[in-house]
Amino acid sequence: DSDLDELHRFAAAGGIPRRAFDLDHYDVPDDAVPRLIAAGAEPVSGHELVRRLIASGLRVTTRQRRGR
Fold this sequence. Notes:
mainly alpha, 4 helices
């Protein structure tokens, strides 16, 4: 994704509360994963997620996280 607004809309539509947002991604419970995949989410490894976040310019670094 290259748009956090799109991500927030998708999460809300999937029943994921905003408090699950962790600056550049959502932490979702395991039981929500099948529902989110059925709605169009693409399962990826943690490494792939970081790669995509960096490529999109949305990655929040550890240093930035510490300053929040």
